[in-house]
Write a structure and sequence with these properties.
This protein is of the alpha/beta class and 323 residues long. It has 2 domains: 5-200 and 298-320, Spore Coat Polysaccharide Biosynthesis Protein SpsA, Chain A (Alpha-Beta Complex); 226-296. Helix content is 49%, strand content 18%. The protein has a 9-stranded mixed sheet, with helices on both faces. α2 (49-59) links the parallel β2 and β3. The two termini are 26 Å apart.
Length: 323
């Protein structure tokens, strides 16, 4: 079904929010007179999320869905949704209603003005801890410093994307995905709409601080070689410093005949260099691990079932289970 906008909604254990997110999107789009379709991606939910989605799809012809065989993560769910897009543009929005659907017509208006990507920038974040706000603030600014790709500050995945950009996004082959960074890398004409991010409607966030840290590492490693270059620079500095210390100690012993016990210095130096080597190996391991996953060529996700049937996921980035 061809429409103006395809709205992608990744969902993981969101049974309490599915009906409300549908009604709010429908009311918003009907008032704005924008034709749309809803694409729900069930990311391996263990509650009644899929049942709720199926119930809505049975009564609404503009609702489609795909359900994963297990949880593959938000980035994989978002990528799956973009592969199912039929509309002239696509909107990515979460099911927790923190990103208000009422902002979609504003994104749509900017798209009509000629922008290819219109993303939502959070001017305020309600009901979030100081630690969450601070970590998010620092993450975007550190990412901006260390990457050559101009990733917008304080911007999540909530955005509208033109179909030509969606097609280019779907052609990108990497397995370790940072969706918002990938759209920044693609480029084209982009702009922002500011909005206030609401508190989660119901349920609990699926992103722990540990998962957010892993996402941050993925983002940094995927879009920057700076960590490797920092390792090289740090290694060179330590090498030069160690050489200078060696020269000084040699002069003190051979020229000035000073009796300097070096056991403490040698021991601390060995531990220091050992720690530095382990850090460097960890950085190298991150890059090698990404290469290993890419070379494996495994799909981004496995589809358990889909409203579009097996053909819906017959792509190089996914496989579909067959009954």
């Amino acid at each position: 079904m061809t429409c103006e906008i395809s709205i992608i909604i990744p969902a993981l254990d969101e049974e309490e929010n599915i009906d409300l997110v549908f009604s709010r999107i429908k009311d918003t789009m009907d008032k704005a007179c924008i034709t749309f379709e809803l694409i729900f991606i069930d990311d391996g939910s263990t509650d009644k999320t899929l049942e709720k989605i199926k119930g809505l799809a049975a009564n609404n012809t503009n609702i489609r869905y795909t359900s994963f065989s297990r949880n593959f993560g938000h980035e994989a769910a978002s990528s799956c949704g973009f592969k199912m897009v039929n509309g002239k543009a696509a909107v990515l929005i979460d099911a927790d209603l923190q990103d208000p659907p009422e902002v979609i017509p504003q994104l749509y208006k900017k798209w009509k003005e000629g922008y290819d990507v219109v993303y939502g920038r959070r001017s305020r974040r309600w009901n979030e801890t100081i630690l969450k706000k601070l970590s998010s603030y620092l993450f975007y600014r550190v990412l901006r410093i260390f990457t050559s790709v101009p990733i917008p500050l304080d911007v999540g995945d909530f955005r509208l994307v033109d179909h030509k950009v969606v097609s280019l996004f779907n052609a990108l082959p990497e397995r370790n995905r940072f969706v918002r960074g990938m759209f920044s890398w693609i480029g084209f004409k982009q702009t922002a709409i500011e909005y206030e991010r609401s508190a989660r409607n119901k349920g609990k966030t699926k992103y722990s601080y540990f998962k957010l840290a892993l996402l941050s590492i993925d983002a940094l490693v995927s879009f920057s070689l700076v960590p490797l270059r920092v390792c090289i620079a740090f290694g060179l500095i330590i090498t030069v410093l160690s050489f200078c210390i060696t020269i000084v100690i040699a002069l003190q012993r051979l020229v000035w005949d000073l009796n300097i016990p070096g056991y403490a210095l040698m021991t601390s130096g060995m531990f220091f260099l050992g720690g530095v080597q382990l850090i460097f190996l960890g950085v190298l391991g991150e890059y090698i691990g990404k290469i290993y996953k890419q070379v494996q060529g495994r799909p981004l996700f496995v589809v358990g079932e889909s409203s579009d049937g097996p053909a819906a996921s017959s792509t190089t980035n996914s496989i579909t289970t067959v009954d």
